[in-house]
Structure formats: C-alpha cells, structure tokens
C-alpha cells in the first residue's frame, strides 16, 4: 500500500509518534494534506524543550528541538497554540522567547547578561531558574507568578525579594552547594498568604551549618498544605509556638534525633501523609507517641530508618482496630508495597508534572534533586 492511501487517522497516529519539532515541520512541507495533519499533531503539544532528558517529560505532550533550530522564524503561536511551558537547557538569549505564548518558562543555566536584564513577559505564571533575576523579581512580573523554582537561593535571600511574589502557590528554593551557610537567617519577609506547596533544600559543599531556617519560612505560609524540607543540621530552628493546622503532606530529609523530630511534628497536628528520610533516629518505641501527636495520620513512610521494624506494623494494626482507623506504615526499602496501596505515586524523575499534585510528584521521591521544576495545573 502506498503511504498516500492511508486514511487520515492512520497518518495522524504516525505523526503522533514523532516528537522532534524540525522533523514534523519537514513533513508538513510534503503536501497540503500532510500539513493539516501535522498542524493537528502540533496542536496537542503543551511543552517545548531542547533538553536531552527525554524521559523526564510527558511523552505525548512534549516536542523537542535542537539549539540550532531557527524557532524564531516560525509562528509559534499558530503552530503550538496550546503551549504551556517552554524549557530551555543550556545558554540562550531570552528576549526572543518573550513572545512565546507559554504560561511557564524553565531555564536552569546561569547567564550573567540576565542579571541586569529587564523586560516584561506577558502571560508567564510559572518560572524555574538558576538564580532570582531582576526580569521577574520586580513589581510588574513578580505578582503574575504562581510558581517559582530557584536553584541557588537560601531563606534570607528569598526574604529580601518575597514582596514581589504575593500570589505564589508553589515555591522551591535550594542552595545545594553553598559555601557560606552561616549567612542564612530566619525568614523576615512578608506572609505568603496563598502558598500551598513549599520545598526548601539547603546543603553544604564545605563548612558547617549551624541552623536550618526553612521551617521559619513555612511559619509565614498560613495556607500551606504540602512541604518538603532538606535539613542538614541536628538542631534546626523550630518555633514551637506557631502551628499550621492546614498542612497535610510533609517530607523531612534530616538526621536529627526523636526529640527534635517531635518538636517539628507537633507543629502540624492535622498531618495526613508523612515521609521521614535521611537516617533520622526514629525507632519502634517512638511510633506510639507519633500516633498521639498526629491523630489524622494515614500514611507513614520511614523506609530509610533501620530501627523501625515489623513490631511497629503489629502495633499500628492493633491501634487501628481499637480506634477505628486506617494507617499505612512502610519501613522496608521496597517501592512495591507502597505503590500497591498508593498507585498514583510516581517515583520517576520528571522535570514537568502534569497536575498541581505534590503527593504524586514530590512525596514519593527519596532524592530532593529529583523534584520537578514545574507542576502544570492545566492537566
């Protein structure tokens, strides 16, 4: 059979297997029929990237291009009318991308020329960047943002610019190779009234960390529902006088003892999902007290702890029978069991998550480096 004899549906199925932008554009030049089918294929695209990590993007909705592809000559708003996120890997000149019809911009390579660059990008609501650049940390662009992911920023640095982002719903700040850990201080910025997801990762390349202040930032987020903290100290700063009754999901990667962990957990009495990672000294003897502190808990993930055993499983089974509760405990380093009970949890690293879903894309991840850059709420 000649390929021209294939019905439109079959040809479209073939084009749907292509995820290279330039290849599809070449196909569109064959004939008018192919051009119409290619346009139909492109109209399903939501994410455009030149990243080489193809498995980290939603397969059916992502189109890939090469750095030397002349995208600026194409009418992107017509070819990709449903484009949600533009993701650029490597060095690039940002200004041509400002006219793209995207809601999200993702670039994690540092470019010094951006430091003093100022312009407005209409429509942008989500940004993932290596640093906090002036072009979005301002009175015009900042209030438009609902998501912000910054790869090199500690709590004090964010506090100095937080006034520009009153409408954030998700914030991720990290400083994974800081050489000046003692410069970080308690959060002194404004209250983030709308923030629902907070992720703070502070690690040290060399030197000592005396305090971790991510919890002080969380104290200024009254609507916070989900949090992920990487705590590189034995005694983080904890204000026990402030509680958050809305927080439901909490991941703690830390190495402190039970007394410190108890102080942290006591701040969140309505917690439902808890993951403790990093070798924290929690044992079977602590589980009964944990259940008293967290009367709403339904999922406990302590797979990194070598001191929680089958004994705790038996105790929780007894506890649930006597209190009419359902609580799942996972202590073995095995993803099989937890995925059986919670099939929607994803352990795969993704750069873009489809849906504003912390539990699906953030909670199951053991390594904070794998947290998604952006969560697209337009699923």
UniProtKB/TrEMBL annotation:
Q: Which residues form the F-box domain?
A: 1-48
Q: Which residues form a coiled coil?
A: none
Q: Which InterPro entries match?
A: F-box-like_dom_sf, F-box_dom, LRR_dom_sf
Tell me one Pfam family matched here: F-box-like
The organism's place on the tree of life at top rank: Eukaryota
- This chain's protein is named F-box domain-containing protein
Q: Which gene encodes it?
A: 107361583
